[in-house]
Amino acid sequence: MPRRDDIKKILLIGSGPIVIGQACEFDYSGTQACKALREEGYEVVLVNSNPATIMTDPATADATYIEPLTWQMVEKVIAKERPDALLPTLGGQTGLNVAMDLDANGVLEKYGVEMIAANAKVIAKAEEREQFKQAMDKIGLGVCKGFTVRTLEDARKALAEVGLPAVVRPSFTMGGSGSAIAYNKDDFDSLVQNGLDQSPVTEVLIEESIIGWKEYEMEVMRDRDDNVVIICAIENFDPMGVHTGDSITVAPAQTLSDKEYQRMRDASLAVIREIGVETGGSNIQFAIEPGTGRMIVIEMNPRVSRSSALASKATGFPIAKIAAKLAVGYRLWELPNDITQKTKACFEPTIDYVVTKMPRFAFEKFPEADATLTTQMKSVGETMSIGRTFQESFQKALRGLEVGAFGFGSDPKDLWGTEDQPSRDDIRAKLSTPGSERIFYIRYAFKDGMTAAEIHKLTNIDPWFLDHLQQLIETEDNLRAIGKLDAIDADTMRDAKRRGFSDRQIATITSKNESQVRAKRLEMGIRPVYKSVDTCAAEFEAFTPYYYSTYETETEAPAKGDKKRVVILGGGPNRIGQGIEFDYCCCHASFALQDMGIESIMVNSNPETVSTDYDTSDILFFEPLTIEDVLNICDAMQPDGVIVQFGGQTPLNLARGLEQAGVPIIGTSVDTIDTAEDRELFSSLIDELGLRQPPSGIARNMDEARVEAKRIGYPALVRPSFVLGGRAMEICYDHSQFARYVAEAFIVADGQPVLIDRFLEDATEVDVDAISDGNDCVIMGIMEHIEEAGVHSGDSACCIPPFSLTQPVLAEIRDATRKLAARLNVVGLMNIQFAVKMEGNQPTLYILEVNPRASRTVPFVAKATGVPVANIATKVMAGQTLKELNVTEEPIPRHVSIKESVLPFRKFAGVDIVLGPEMRSTGEVMGVSELFSIAFAKSQLAAGTVLPESGKIFLSLSANHKESAESLGKSLIDLGFELLATEGTAVRLEASGIAVTRVKKLSEGHPNLIDYLKNDDVQLILNTPSGKGARTDEGKIRAAGVQHGVPCITTLAAAEAAVRAMVAMRETPMEVESLQRRYAQNV
Known about the structure:
It is a single chain. The chain is α/β, with parallel strands linked by helices. It has an eight-stranded mixed beta sheet with strand order 6-15-14-11-12-13-16-17, with helices on both faces. A hairpin with a 3-residue loop joins strand 28 (764-773) and strand 29. The protein is globular, with a radius of gyration of 28 Å.
């Protein structure tokens, strides 16, 4: 059956901003689908609110709408574009929920749009717990004993049947949001209440607990003729009770007997058929009771899921691409396998290696959060590694995680043998509660003499895995016994390398440095070889150059031809402060090199992204980003250049080491990058150019810090050097705060000095992105921040073009940017942060910092202006000039684009949500309109801050903002809202004759704001902080607001913008427009 011809235009819904539980795997699957459908000749319309992705690039779809993902906004797109079909299964839970809303509100019927791949009935059957259970009963598969409830009263009845501990899971949420395990009745009541609030359909499932069982996932594909293939079986290292997204996972499954695997395979086929997912990928989760072998189905995702990206990268089978083609009528046997070109997509992949995925957490950003791993997902990213054995793959994954570990112990992070060595009690405690450090404590347990059986009893981790970890420790003990590097023979060295030991670990064990171990290893002739990922265990030749390293004899890596080769180093696992924006830049670098006829080589370890797709670059190495691994690749590939400026901090940390080893780094030099990071050098350079920066100092110990603080004065900004995303950055207003924060900064800085700056209060921050080719410098975008200085630029909303800066200030900014680019000799991208502060009645321009590399604002600037910024920068780094590329003037767009940040506080109950100088957002959205106010309203809507149309608004402003209270209060009353306030703000409002209802402070008893929240009687909270932290009254109010789903605005500037937006929304309806049409107007 060839493809359907009755469909011409297809609408895809993206997954919105990156949040915990739904990250850039869906950028990857959406991008794949767009490519697949367009090569079949369909017209593709894409709606997504996230500007940081490749998916929302104007080149990916025919019409790209960066608009909020609500059914009302998507209806406007449908009305304008009139698509024939909607493909809902590639945008994660968000895309699925929007499609269900469109169906429920009759939009699809009204415009005659057909849902393809899975219809609303099928989705409901898989997603609604009760329907799913009945379906499983029908085909004779076990499920957890459980009951669906809509009230607390029913939940208590269900508890009597299920017993404690019980699992509470809300329906239709993603990443397990709101789901948790109740061990006693009090917890149970509060978890159920919270679950009902979080579920969009107010429905919660109460289930028996199956904690400690083994957990597996199957990735399945089905076509219209009912051909079904299993792409991959994935096994969780951590037992049930830890969300799969937070568990270490291994593919193929390692501990299933053949019989068990067949049973699970048969069950998977039965499930996909019964649920009726007509075409495309699905993901089915199973649990097995280790003692009895009882197997139950946990759940099924009737869509391409988070693990589909992992399964695609692990096997080389492009799930999303094939799913999109099946949706338009192809059959599996008609589609060729891209990798072999001989076999068809109906061949199940077989793999002759082991893949390990490790989650990356960000608990250091949320010190008040509960860091226990449970059924609700908390990780912010992941790394994947490929090796010939579990041991090799496991140790490679640990070093790919970039948390300071270089494998399983024997590295700078290792506490064993130091004064911080954990005691037996510490070890037992860390093993019995799952946490992000548990894996390292398994090693300490073995080191402390515990047996595998004792460890199994505390962790329920399968004995097979524990046995392999024990073998790693035996290898390590053997190396320690030899003790000297010169005494290690070739066989021992090769055995250690095959088990995944890094040069750094061997160096630590033998008290040498990494380069000495590398030299010794090369002298012995021990180098890695590169094997290809070929979907067929080497039965057919592979045509896609997708490689991993291992220590064997035969290499499959391609020899160098006549073409020049350039290596691009990616950003590794996502984390807060370094996310998909950098992956976007790496992909663009690859596309640009291919345009120039240069062979592009990608090195990255993140399975969620487009950069690790086998058809993004000419050659892909799926390897950890460490000096050792990158140098090994450079030895084998002999590149003509390496790009380190696009992957965030990760490749920059390797730049100096690579340069010293003789690797050619192109673009801005390593010296320039270091000059910009080095405070003393940079200060003298600013003075030389006659520019200004806030008074600043640098301290290597507490005494120096005190001297500097006296000279600089308060408020002061304290931060460690060489860290990412403003980690441990704080604003200090007095001596006691200063002493506390500086002590914390020294701990984080880990031997590096601490930086102290004068903090410019009430200044406006401005971000500038520019490209320089060494002679000319062209500005790409000037972004004005909406929040005042002091909020990390990654967390602040910002606007292109600037909305309040005067022409003389903009001219000064442009001039300073050109001077800096010329003096630093930048070749490629650069980002500068300025602050504009009113001094007297004159605006004064200060320079806060300069980054001569790609910054996280690049994709936003590209989408706002229509200029492919990263692409141009790559061509400049590869030797072209801006004049040759015809890039000579700053693009000024005709419309306003506003970027807003999305924060993960919903996942961390009780954490105060005040924004500060440390970055905590996981993703971003963008609102576009001709008017600033409507663009801001769209950005808020897209970020989930729904600005109310009527109801009650709570106002509580800190003492220094009380003047603004009157104007804000007046505007809100004029809009017809009722105001609530605590005493301080109320007195001021009443004095100006503004009606307000007084609410008690939390310490004064009831009725206080939390009572109003519980009664759904507040629609918006405007609260500017006077103190920071979750212990303060305000902190509790803001945290409670988040948990009750009430939007909270915590800065005055954002509050004023919100009021402008609410006024504008009454007068002007929101319109939608595609990027392609907007850019056409700019010309």
